[in-house]
Amino acid sequence: PPKGGGMNIDFSFNKGYKLIYKYGMFILSCLNFLIGACILAVGIYAEIERQKYKTLEGIFLAPAIILILLGIVMFIVSFIGVLASLRDNLHLLQAFLYILGICLVLELTGGIVALLFRNKTLDFVNDNIRRGIRNYYDDLDFKNIMDFVQEKFKCCGGEDFKDWENNQYHNCSAPGPLACGVPYTCCIHNKTTNVKNTMCGYKTISKVRQQVHDIIYVRGCTHAVLIWFTDNYTIMAGVLLGILVPQFFGVVITLLYISRVEDIISEHSSIRDGLLQAGHRQPAVDFTGGGCCMCFPG
Fold it and tell me: Which Cys pairs does UniProt list as disulfide-bonded (predicted)?
């Protein structure tokens, strides 16, 4: 083994880089841990509130379930990252690297597939919106989201306003005042008055678009949202980068961290072997895990 100051300088150099990667990974994991915990808490609260009403079948239409699953995944992955950075445990570091890498690949793959099969993706979204419309008055969770989207994006239904015929109360064959109509959130409000006419969509489903385009919004919400995404592509690009870049840096930092830990383990093994060959005995050290700060002797 190398003797003198050269060994110490080289070892300190590796140790310094290890600390940079260690605390970088620790801070990133802690931030994701807190975000995951908040998302999980919001999802649990939303699900408790949602259970007070009749719920839909299908995860796609249950934002509370999506939040809970997302929060659990972020919570577990970030916890592994925090523990791995504190313990310098190679097995935990590798597990964190693989899980984070798989999540990143799945997200990228899902986005690419959605773009390549855009029409099928739109059909999938529209079909699920129609399922939600069938239970519009039974699921407050979906109702609030649909009302917000229709008012915010000035749209009606999924593919178009005629999707509301899938609802038993808005179907043209149904009895009652809602038959063949759309919810008031589809209505074009008169800007001269602040009074909302809740029956402005009365008997509109049976008519063609040209007859009702000045009374209700006739375009579907999936198209309206896509147009908004296109018009605000810089915002969407920022959101996507905000999601993907931290994960990418997490993978890179973890990979470099593992490399530095392996280098230090290799150096310690060389030092130990040299001391043993020189006739000096010292206790064996477990290099796969250590204390919460520096695991290896300086």
Answer: 156-172
